[in-house]
């Protein structure tokens, strides 16, 4: 067990494709493609903003990415507001509550570190019912930048007055794992979809297919 367990939010605790899946009938046959493109552009926009120094909050990037996806994919745009509403309260993965409960019962500190804005994260955490299982929800908004900048991961060590090596950081995003590994966190890649590995020089300590069993690795 580690002293502090920190989780990425979107894709790790919350299913980023749940919004489109919920409204797949309204989106039509291009639903899967639209969902994938929405997520890809959302992340791409965050990296561009971080590197250029022109911050725009994550909810705005989420809207921008969806608009791009609609422009690129042949899907009815009248589903836009329903998709955005669904994104505010994305489904948590099935194991999340049990895993967080186990960690808390063992005495660990638990937190989220996310690109999401505070308002986004509050809605998602409340909808999932995991607020009581978290010691903090840390947004990049206070820094006005995005992962994988080292200063973002430093928000955790500053908040908990912890050395990087005492923090177990979990993310489904391999690029996020690379950034957190470079910072010095012990990292666990939650590879839910069986993606091939990359960033060979910045490997995770452990790879899991879900959060199940996290307390044992």
Can you describe what's shown?
The chain is of the alpha/beta class and 217 residues long. The chain contains 9 helices and 6 strands; from the N terminus they run βααααααβαβαβαββ. The chain has 2 domains: 139 residues, 3-Layer(aba) Sandwich (Rossmann fold), CATH 3.40.50; 71 residues, DNA polymerase, domain 1 (Orthogonal Bundle). Strands 3-2-1-4-5-6 form a 6-stranded parallel β-sheet, with helices on both faces. β4, α9 and β5 form a beta-alpha-beta unit. α3 packs across α4. It is globular and about 50 Å long. The mean pLDDT is 97.
Secondary-structure map:
Blueprint: E1 4-7, H1 18-22, H2 24-27, H3 31-52, H4 58-72, H5 80-88, H6 96-105, E2 109-114, H7 118-128, E3 136-139, H8 150-160, E4 167-171, H9 174-183, E5 186-190, E6 206-208
Parallel strand pairs: 1-2, 1-4, 2-3, 4-5, 5-6
CATH class of the largest domain reads: Alpha Beta
| Euclidean distance between termini CA atoms | 8 Å
Q: Within the CATH hierarchy, at the fold level, what is the topology of the largest domain?
A: Rossmann fold
The averaged pLDDT comes out at 97
In a nutshell, what does this entry contain?
It is built from nine helices and six strands. The chain has a six-stranded parallel beta sheet with strand order 3-2-1-4-5-6, sandwiched between helices.
List keywords for this structure.
six-stranded parallel beta sheet, 12% strand, 2 domains, alpha/beta, DNA polymerase, domain 1, Rossmann fold, 9 helices
